[in-house]
Structures are given as structure tokens and as C-alpha cells.
Amino acid sequence: MTNLSAEFKALANYRPTHKVRFVTAASLFDGHDAAINIMRRILQSMGAEVIHLGHNRSVDEVVTAALQEDAQGIAISSYQGGHVEYFKYMVDLLKQRGGAHIQVFGGGGGVIVPSEIAELQAYGVTRIYSPEDGQRMGLAGMIGEMVMRCDQDLTGFAPAAMDAIQGHTTQSWRALAQLITGLESLGEKHPLSPVIRAEAATKKIPVLGITGTGGAGKSSLTDELIRRLRLDLGDALRVALISIDPSRRKSGGALLGDRIRMNAIGPWQNGERVFMRSLATRDFGSEISQALPDVIAACKVAGFDAIIVETSGIGQGDAAIVPLVDIPMYVMTPEFGAASQLEKIDMLDFAEFVAINKFDRKGASDALRDVSKQVQRNKEAWTLPPDQMPVFGTMAARFNDDGVTALYQALLPRLQELGLPVTGGGVLPKVNVRHSSNQTPVVPASRTRYLAEITDTVRGYKQTARSQARLAREIQQLSETARMLLDDDATRDGAKNTVLRLASERSERQDPAARKLVAQWPEMQKAYAGDEYVVKIRDKELRTALTSKSLSGTTIRKVSLPTYEDHGEILKWLMLDNVPGSYPYTAGTFAFKREGEDPTRMFAGEGDAFRTNRRFKLLSSGMAAKRLSTAFDSVTLYGNDPDPRPDIYGKVGNSGVSIATLDDLKVLYGGFDLCNPATSVSMTINGPAPSILAMFMNAAIDQNLEKFEADNGRQPTDTEAAKIREWVLANVRGTVQADILKEDQGQNTCIFSTEFSLKVMGDIAEYFVHHNVRNFYSVSISGYHIAEAGANPISQLAFTLSNGFTLVEAYLARGMHIDDFAPNLSFFFSNGMDPEYTVMGRVARRIWAVAMKEKYGANERSQKLKYHIQTSGRSLHAQEIQFNDIRTTLQALIAIYDNCNSLHTNAFDEAITTPTEDSVRRAMAIQLIINREWGLAKNENPNQGAFIIEELTELVEEAVLSEFTAIADRGGVLGAMETGYQRGKIQDESMTYEMLKHTGELPIIGVNTFRNPHGDAVLDKLELARSTDEEKQSQLKRLAEFHATHAAESPAALKRLQQAVIDNKNVFEVLMDAVRVCSLGQITNALFEVGGQYRRSM
Predict the structure, then answer these.
(1) pLDDT the model gives residue 315
(2) Rounded to the nearest 5°, which phi and psi values hold at 75?
């Protein structure tokens, strides 16, 4: 496809002559940073030094990073709406803060339409790339152009006098950043270098040097120490943080990857307090930059109270940081090998403090003892016991870890001795430990092989099924042989008896359950052969029509059975496939689809609650079942309140509905009976899911309390209100996404620390058990977002199921019973164009059912995997967007053939905008036409009996089980997440797809082949559904009114919520009360303080 011109080929091979630095990020409240990750990798390979900030970054964070890092360029991906305000605000802030020459580049995969691109470029954005640019230029060509435009020498901007960097103003910090660039480029030849060194020698400012092995957690530990320093001392000090990462020998580029890990360097109440600068070594085989002595000196002259230097990862023999700092600290992990290896580590001779981080790992206590002894030997401190050596066990990844606090509290007096301008201790309570205590892992260490056990269970079950099938076949063959021998000559029974003996021996080896299945087969055939399927439950007959007639008079059966006569084939089919609604549920969770209830979901989310409510009513008009699927705007998805700040304001009500309060949620679902069995509500929200779920439950309760009042003309008594509340919780139907594991893996709406999020998910499950919530799913374990981030269908399925089993293990570890919570778990998959999607449900249902029954001993309700599926967002292309409906139709068809429990069909224009009323009706029509007009859809098991379907089921299942083994080998899902296994795989698969799309090896009609000769003029005429200014202002006004109404009650409610976290109580229980008086943003910020913020990674 891509026949690049010579100009673009040259750009793809461009190499800069100057050191080019880029800040890359995904915009505020934007998840799925796979695209920008691909871009930053290409930037590095072209020789650029890249400061990658990851997803969900505000304009202020990006601009601050660009100014402090003195970058020539900023590259931003923006997919979630609000991009016009975002980019304009960035241009404005850069101009205000002395960065007018920093060039801004962006892209949004078609979301930013041509008129907006022109508007932004006219405003001062250097370039916004469209999908057409990608086609013409190629990925590398676009990046090459960015590097070429930014290939400029910045040393001329450096200040000429020292006083420019003093005073701690925005301008002085900017001047310091520009001076550091000059020092990096010119070193000792810089005219200010000797002056700065001389001035710095007169200053008494402590310099802490943090070094250690690669991947030991230096950045996280550094961030946690800074957080404690700021909290403990009232955020009174100013700290300079210098972080060093290695340059790549081959390209000269570098990934400056420490800033992304920092959560504690932003401004608090007292404004900017931490200046951070990332340096590349620009030298090979060194852990520090040649410019480091000058940079430290410059920070001293600038007047910082403390300076922290973090080096790149080092080996056993490296200690280059020691002569440049006052306090060397060494960070390592428990896995250093044999104790004799410690004798080779040079830094153990020099380090004043040693941190054994990731202290939850196996052998941590032994490591603490061995390292302490080694330090004692090195210091020859024989008079002190080993446990008094300055060696600490830390877990920087755990919020408020007491091991990190112990290290900080030992470090503080030493900093004070060296000139830190504070006296005495701070406000943080003293800890009396030397290592992390209170270790209660989400999944116990003894259970980390759970996925390997599940793999063995599923393979074992299939092996049993096949061996039982062979026995059944042989018994039938031998019995028939005996009958034929008898028919041939009744007097000769020697051979007949031998044959019967062989049959009897096999019968004894046959599993009684398998024998029963074969015996019941004729009855099953009879039951499905009639016009009605009749089941008796407690003297009540339930009748289901089994046939329908086509216009030609052909009888179409709801469920078609195989016509096998061989008992082996029959048993194998019954044990591995079976009819829908029967174990192992391969063909479907329920015996039949509900009459009059298509799996169709009414999907809406735009503007404010009033507008989305109108859309719900329009979509569900005339439909017996109201299945309301809600998309929230990205402000809500990230747990924030609407705000006038441009980068937030632009996103309010775009690409989803804005919900900030309980009042908003009541408006959203107003007019729908939330406890009607035909109503179910699905909420696509993750990070703040507990808060939104609590709002929803309260809305349903209040709706029924109001109904009681209207019916009875009075308010209910306390007893009546409690009964109504109890009845509502037991009857409300729907699901909330809440799956934080896939959010981490797909880099989407993670807002709290993963550990805290998992704790609250467990709290919700526990609350549901105690309050008999049986019809609402406590979590929708999602593969959709894993697929959106770039995963192929096998990775999507494997990661999603493994996440589900992780929740099972986590909830079992909390003492819950499998059958109390497993029925309240549901799944959410993405469909697509690959062949494996055809059997997604079959494979998922069989693995889940077999694991639940054979491994966990769960009951029938727990064995049934319920899943919602959505047509692929990735196959919605911004070019020839009308063709998207064709792809969606095919995906909807295979989802219905696969017996999905509910289905959402994407609107064709979702590639570039919030879907319009017309496009949503078209999308719903797709599945309505399949369900109501497509003749074969009258049959509910069309996939069964197809050779390719059976083969694909086996191939995909085996691939998923192999992936389970790979995850198990990395310590289960959480262990694999720690090493970035899932993220890396998703990004690799995303890159493969993008490259094949760009080269044309993967043909996509209308995108890279069969292109419209007249171009995509339709985009200019397309209706763009954007939230209106009136809706945004209305949301701000309603929020202010809610805050004012509850101003007296909210502070106490937030305190109670925080105390529940501190005391390890059930947080959801308290949230149910808190949402009545607190807004979403208030709750999120309160929980940040006690639960910890999510720490991004590459």
C-alpha cells in the first residue's frame, strides 16, 4: 500500500545533528497509550532523548515537564475529545512560561477532523497528523519530520549570569533548565561553569545519591521519599531531583523514564516545590552524565534545600555516584543470588543506607539478614548487631509502606546534619520497624501457580473426556459384536462371552457420570425433537417453543442435535460441547434465549445527564427490555469533577456523559424502573467504579422510596425503608465494569494504586454477598479495553480469563465462598475481524466452567460464564467510515451465532465523534435485523457441528492455556503485571497490526486498498456530536449547587471514608452513604490521600 515518496523515505531515515529532546504523553483523561508509546520508541531509535509521561496528563504537567526538561518538542496523542481546548491551552501556557519556541505535535487517529486541524495549526500548534498523513508519510516519516523540525541548538537560550537562576520563580526555574542544557552541551567550556562551581562550594546543601540495580524500584522509592519529605515537613522545602538514564549506543537516543514514575513532584497547596531534570549519560558504559557535577553545582547556586540524584541501573562493580554526593544510598532487590554475591557489590562498601526494595518477594527476610551481615563486615562494625545496620526492607509500590517510612526517618537526621534547613522531627508518626510489615498480598504466595493448576485441570478434563469417549465406543462396539455373534449362531457362546467380558471390564472403568450421559442421550434427542421443550419446576410446567417456520414453510429448530450413532462421538460431544445451557456450556450459558428479549443493548453517553436520558428513551422506545449501556465522559472516567480549566472543560460531556453527583445519576436514569426484571443497566467505568456504583444503588433505592411515598401518600417508616432498601439491592439488575487489572494492562483509567483498587473491588463483592445482591454483577471483567489497546484475540481472551481467575483467588483469600461471589462476575469481550473471534464465547465458557467445577468445586450458577460483547472499536476506521457498518455487521453476526448474552454494535462514526442519533439507530438496526430478519438466527446453536468451529475451538483454547502457563511462570497475573508482561505483549501486537496496516500486507478496504479516488470529503460534511457550552455550564452550576447544599455534611463524610480505608473496613459500605453528600471529585481526592495514586509505567 504505502509507496512512500523519496521525500518521506528520507524523513524516515533522518538523524539529528543536535541533541533533540521530546516530551511524549497522552492527553488528560486519555487512556490506551499504545499509540504514543509506539511514537516514543521510534523517536528514540532516531536519536532523540524522550521523556515519556504516559497517559492521562494535564496540560500543566506536560508543559512543566517540557520547560524543566528543556525539550525542543512535545508530542501528544488525544483521542477522548476536548482536543481543541487542550492544544490551545498548551500553546498559551508555553507562551506564558517562556517556552514559545517549543514545538507541539499531535494526532488523534481521525478524532481530530480537518477543520479542527486547520484551526489548531493556525493557533500555533506546529502540526496535527491525520490518518491520511500517516498513509502518505508512514509512521517513521511522520516522526522523522518532527525530529527534523526540532533539530535545533538550544544552548543560545542559556542565561549569561548566575542571578537568573536564583529566586525560585517560574522564570528562574526555566533559566536553570536552559543553563543545564548549556552545561550538558559545553561542560567545563561553558562560561558559567567555573563561576557556578566556585559559588556552589560555599553552600551547605545536602546531596543524596540513589543508585542500584536496574528494575530495583529506584524511581518509585525516590518518589516515596520525596512524598514523605513534603508531608512530614509541611511542604516547606524546595527539592531538586536529577535523574539519569543511559543513552543507547546504537542510536544515541535515550528513554528518560523516571519522570513517569513520579506522583509527588507536582504542586501542592504551597505551589511548585520540586524541580526535576532528566539527563541522558551521552556516554556509554557509565551510570552518570559527565555534566552531573556542574548540574549539581547549578542546583546548589539556585538555592534548593536538598538535591537528590538518581542514577541509571548499575552492576556489581559500579560506584561512580559516590564522590559526587554526600549520602550514597543503594537500592537492590532480594534476588541477588547466593550470599557470596554480596561480597562483589562495590556500593555496599560506600552506601550509608541500603534499601532492599520489593520486600514482598520470596526470600526477603533472608536477604535482609545477609545484606545486614555483609554491611557489618564491610564497616567492621562488630560491636553493633546486624539488625542495627542501616539496611531497610521497603515496598515502594505499596502506598504508605512503613518500611519506606523507616528508611526516611533514618535518613532525615543525616540530611539535617548536612544542612537541611529544618530542626527536629516532622509530623509523620514514628515507626518502629526496619522493614515492611503488614504484608497481606492480594493473592497469597502459596497460590501464585493458580493459572498453571487451571491449565492442568482443563487439559486433564479434556483428556478424561476423550478417554471416556474411547471406552464408550469400545463398550458399544463389543456389545454390538456380541449381539451379532448371537444372531449368527446362538449355540456358540465362547467368542460372545469373551467379547462381553471385555465389554464388562471396560464398563467397570467407565465413569458413572459418563455412563449416565450416554444412557440419557435418547431421552435428550426426544426432548429436543418435539415442537416444545417442557421442564417441570416445583409442579409448574415451563414450555419453550422449539421450532419456527420460514416463509417457505421449512421448520427451523431452535437447537439442532448431532445425528451421531457412535457412543464415543456422542459422549465426546456431550462432555466437550453439549447443548446450550448444559455443562460445560460451550454452546451457551442458558438453554434458550429469553423470549422477546434480544441481546441488544441501548448504548448512550453524551453531553449532560438530561441529554443522555433523552437518548436512552429514544433508543428503548417500543422495546420490551430496557438494556441501558452507559458511556461516561473522560472527566468522570478519571474520577474528576467538571472544572472551568480548559483541558478539563473541553472534555466535559464529550465522548460520554458527564456525571459528578448522585443528582446527576438520578436524572440519567429518570423514567426507567431500575428494579423491573426487564431493565438492566451497564456502566462502563473503572477507576471510580465504586463511587458511581454507590450512586447508582442509591438512585435505585431513592426511586423506590419515592414510589412508596407516591403510592401511600406518606413517607415510609424506618422499618419499611429498610425493607425497601433490602428489596432493591436484591432485585436491581445490571453490571459495572470495575475491572482494574485490565486497566493497568491496557493503560486506561487507572487512578488509584492497583492494590487499593483491588481491595475496594473485594469490598464490593463482600457487600453484595452480605446484602444478597444476586442480579447485579459486581465486576465486568473486560477484554474490550485490552483489545482496544492493541492485543490480538488470543491475548485478549487469555488476559481477560486470567484476570477473572485472579479475582477468584483474591476473593477466596479474603474468606469468601466461591458460590457467594462467582455468579456475580461477568465478562466483556471485544469482537473483531480475525477468525479466532468466531469461537471467543465457546472457549471462554468451557475454560471457565471446567475450572469452576473441577478445580474450585463451584455450583452450577458459578460455572456459567455470562458475557457481553461489543463490536471492535479498532476496526472502526476514520477513512470511508460508512464501510465500518459492514465490518460491524459481520462481527455482530458471529457474536449472535456464538450465543453471546448481550451485544453492543458500535456506530460507524465512532471513529471520529460521539455517535449521532442516526448512527446509533443504524448500529442497533444491525443486530435487530440479524435477530429478527436473518433466518438462520432463529436457530440458537448454528456454530455446533462445523469442522472449522471445532478445530478453532481446540486451537484457541490450547493457545489460551499456553498463555496461562506463561503468566503462571511469572508469578501469576500480578507478578506478570509487575514486569510489564501483559503491557509489553499488547504493545507488540499493536505494533504488528499497525505495521501490517501501513505496509498493506493486512488489506483494509477503504483504508489501505480500494481507496476512494475522490478522497474523504465526507468528513467535512459529517455531523459532529459535541457537548454544548450550555451543557458544560449547566454541569458546573449543578455541581456548585450540590457542593453548597451539602457543605456542612461532606467534610465529615469524607473523613469517615478515609478512616474506613485506614482501619481496613469495608470502603463500599461507607461509600453508599458518602455519595449522598459528596461529589465524585471530592471522593476521588479524599481516597488519593489514603489509598494512593496509580503509578504509571512504560
Answers:
(1) 82
(2) -125, 125
Indicate if the alpha-carbon torsion angle 97, 100, 101, 104 is positive or negative: positive
Intra-chain end-to-end CA distance of the chain, in Å: 31
3 state SS of 222: helix
* Cβ-count burial 373-402 (b if 16+ within 10 Å, e if not): bbbbebeeeeeeebeebbbbbbbbbbbbbb
Cα gap 793→984, rounded to integer Å: 16
Q: Is 870 helix (H, G, I), strand (E, B) or coil?
A: strand
Q: Is the pLDDT of residue 2 over 60?
A: no
3-state secondary structure of 1079: coil
Give the span between the Cα atoms of 172 and 917, in whole angstroms. Answer: 52
258 closest CA partner among 322, 209, 305, 215: 215
- Give the ranges where 244-363 is alpha helix by DSSP (H): 292-302, 347-350
Rounded CA separation 635/258 (Å): 26
pLDDT attached to residue 990: 87
Backbone angles phi, psi at 901, to 5 degrees: -85, -30
Residue pLDDT, tens place only, 940-970: 999 999 999 999 999 999 999 999 999 999 9
Question: Which residues on neighbouring strands pair with residue 474, listed in sequence order?
Answer: none
DSSP 248: P
Hey, is 957 helix, strand or coil? helix
Non-local CB neighbours of 817 within 8 Å, separated by 6+ positions: none
Closest among 322, 232, 243, 234 to 275, alpha carbons compared? 243
Q: What is the pLDDT of residue 566?
A: 97
The answer to whether 602 touches 616, Cβ cutoff 8 Å, is yes
**Is the pTM above the cut of 0.85?**
yes
Q: What gap in Å lies between CA 458 and CA 957, rounded to an integer?
A: 9
The pLDDT value given to residue 1018: 44
Pairwise CA distance, residues 107 & 131, whole Å: 9
Q: How high does pLDDT run on average in the chain?
A: 93
pLDDT digits (tens, 9 = 90+) for 1044-1057: 999 999 999 999 99
Confidence band for 1, pLDDT divided at 50, 70 and 90: very low
CA dihedral for 565, 570, 573, 579, sign (positive or negative): positive
Dihedral sign computed on CA atoms, order 262, 263, 265, 267: positive
Q: For the chain, give the longest Cα–Cα distance.
A: 119
In the structure grid, which three cell numbers stand for residue 617, read together? 428513551
Average pLDDT (685-701) is: 96
Does 425 score more than 90 pLDDT? no
Question: Helix (H, G, I), strand (E, B), or coil: what is residue 8?
Answer: helix
pLDDT in tens, 132-190: 898 889 889 999 999 999 999 999 999 999 999 999 999 999 999 999 999 999 888 89
Element (H, E) at 218: helix 218-232
Q: Yes or no: say if 647 and 59 are a contact pair by the CB < 8 Å rule.
A: yes
Distant-in-sequence, close-in-space partners of 177: CB < 8 Å, separation ≥ 6: 67, 68, 69, 70, 277
Over the stretch 990-1031, which tens digit does the pLDDT of each residue have? 889 988 887 889 999 988 889 888 765 545 556 677 899 999
Rounded CA-CA distance 905/892 in Å is 7
Quick count: other Cβ atoms within 10 Å of Cβ 713? 7
Could you identify the residue written with the cell 546548589?
Answer: 300
Q: What does the pLDDT read at residue 333?
A: 94
Q: Are 233 and 273 in contact (CB under 8 A)?
A: no
CA 67 to chain centroid, in Å, comes to 30
Written as one letter, the residue type at 565 is E
Q: Where are the alpha helices (DSSP H) in 732-853?
A: 740-746, 754-770, 784-788, 793-813, 818-821, 840-850
- pLDDT value of position 999: 83
Determine the Cα–Cα distance for residues 849 and 860; give it in Å rounded to an integer. Answer: 9
User: Around Cβ 115, how many Cβ atoms within 10 Å?
Assistant: 12
| Confidence at residue 945, expressed as pLDDT on a 0 to 100 scale | 94
